[in-house]
Automatic annotation (TrEMBL):
Homodimer. CDD domains: ribokinase (cd01174). Activated by a monovalent cation that binds near, but not in, the active site. The most likely occupant of the site in vivo is potassium. Ion binding induces a conformational change that may alter substrate affinity. One of its GO terms (cellular component) is cytoplasm. It comes from the Bacteria. Catalyzes the phosphorylation of ribose at O-5 in a reaction requiring ATP and magnesium. The resulting D-ribose-5-phosphate can then be used either for sythesis of nucleotides, histidine, and tryptophan, or as a component of the pentose phosphate pathway. The keyword Transferase applies. The lineage of its organism: Bacteria, Bacillati, Bacillota, Bacilli, Lactobacillales. Pathway: Carbohydrate metabolism; D-ribose degradation; D-ribose 5-phosphate from beta-D-ribopyranose: step 2/2. This is Ribokinase. Pfam families: PfkB. It comes from Lactobacillus amylovorus subsp. animalium. Its cofactor is Mg(2+). Requires a divalent cation, most likely magnesium in vivo, as an electrophilic catalyst to aid phosphoryl group transfer. It is the chelate of the metal and the nucleotide that is the actual substrate. Its EC number is 2.7.1.15.
Length: 308
């Protein structure tokens, strides 16, 4: 069984469903209010666990009921929360989403305890990082902590996967030095490289620029068009499955969790792992929500068998 550590964020997502966005100064009524678990780190950990990997999550929550809710959600999906710690006096991360009838959203994030993660927390989890197969991180927790984690993992010969999200202009060279695989979506990639993605040729140029930053393996996810892989051995677009998408929230997180879970330790099966990840994401986009929409390993296997 694959062993995966995810270091990253967890949030409670509160969504205010509205007909139209309010204008500045206007008061309106919501048509509904819903709450769900979220945060890129938590979503990716749940995707890895649902795909059958033994998964640990390293994170901090606040001293409030939201922290208990998040920990409960993670556990219910099979994620080990031994290293989810509580910061006394802090609030759990929270995303406030306004969703209009056209499906557009505005999101305001209160990062809360996600920014309280420290290098000391990693040291407490060093046995895990040194012995697990693969570590995944994003940019919703302190970058210096991610850099220390990747450095530790690379010293132990483990695979490191960076999802550079949300997008930032300049990724520290120190972090890139310890990154085996970088997995941005098209917007994040364009922000790093400065080259907008329009087609296969701009995907290739983006991948080339990312390699020049010192990372050998690149995957740029490109929504319903697929995922572009660029490694020393393979350069190709793995097409997305044609499905009727109802909610694409969490498509990228599902892809990352499934990809990591299915990648060999020597990274020799990039294309195959991306095809399984693509299948998993194509199921997720046909369901509502992020965490509940992530399919199980059995569902993905069944879908792949059905198409043979
Ligand atoms: P999000 O932020 O919504 O979680 P993302 O922008 O990080 O997603 P995408 O590039 O949109 O990630 O999608 C990741 C993968 O999910 C794609 O590479 C593709 O395989 C699959 N996917 C996304 N949208 C669709 C779709 N409409 N139909 C089928 N597959 C899709």
């Amino acid at each position: 069984m694959k062993k995966i550590v995810v270091i990253g964020s967890s949030n409670v997502d509160t969504t205010l469903h509205v007909k139209d966005f309010p204008k500045p100064g206007e008061t309106i009524n919501a048509t509904d209010v819903t709450t769900a678990g979220g945060g890129k780190g938590a979503n990716q950990a749940i995707a890895a666990a649902k795909s059958g990997a033994e998964t640990y999550f390293i994170n901090r929550v606040g001293e409030d009921s939201d922290g208990g809710y998040i920990t409960h959600q993670l556990k219910s999906y099979g994620v080990d929360t031994t290293y989810v710690q509580t910061t006394i006096g802090a609030k759990t991360g929270h995303a406030y989403i306004t969703l209009n009838e056209a499906g557009q959203n505005d999101i305001i994030i209160d990062h809360g305890a996600n920014y309280e993660l420290t290098v000391e927390d990693l040291k407490a989890a060093s046995d895990l990082i040194n012995n697990w197969d693969c570590i995944i991180a994003q940019f919703e927790t302190p970058i210096d902590v991610t850099t220390s984690a990747f450095k530790m993992a690379k010293k132990a010969g483990k695979v490191t996967i960076l999802n550079p999200a949300p997008a930032i202009d300049k990724i520290p060279a120190d972090l890139l030095k310890y990154t085996d695989i970088i997995m941005p979506n098209e917007t994040e990639s364009a922000k790093i490289t400065g080259i907008p993605i329009k087609d296969n040729s701009t995907l290739a140029t983006n991948a080339e620029k990312l390699h020049l930053l010192g990372v050998k393996n690149v995957i740029i996810t490109y929504g319903d068009k697929g995922a572009y892989i660029s490694t020393p051995d393979v350069e190709t677009l793995v097409p997305a499955y044609k499905v009727d998408a109802t909610d694409t929230t969490g498509a990228g997180d599902t892809f990352i969790g499934y990809f990591a879970s299915n990648l060999n330790a020597d990274m020799s099966n990039f294309e195959e792992a991306a095809k399984i990840a693509s299948r998993a994401s194509s199921i997720a986009v046909q369901r509502l929500g992020a965490q509940p929409s992530i399919p199980t390993e059995q569902e993905v296997k069944q879908a792949m068998e059905d198409e043979e």
